[in-house]
Amino acid sequence: MAQPNRVPFDHDAVLALAKYYRFQWEPVQDCHVLLYPEGQVQLRGGAGEIMKRVDGARSLNAIVADLQATFPDAPDLRADVVDFLEVAHGNGWIRPQTV
Description:
alpha+beta; Arc Repressor Mutant, subunit A; three-stranded antiparallel beta sheet; 3 helices; 5 strands
């Protein structure tokens, strides 16, 4: 299996969905999805929780802080959130916005 395409970015940059992507809950599939013209990406569990917070107003650091506050009993989430968002960036699902 190929390694995911991870693309690092500034963790203080505000993150938004890339053009042509839409995030929504899909009841039939019982998960969040990213819709785009050619198809969709299923985002199960933690992936959906992370993408819920990619709203064009928060940075990776703010997303991690919100997740830690929402799930205080979870172990340190930062490494997992960084991994997921760098892969999402590498796949072209999200884009960091410059201030």
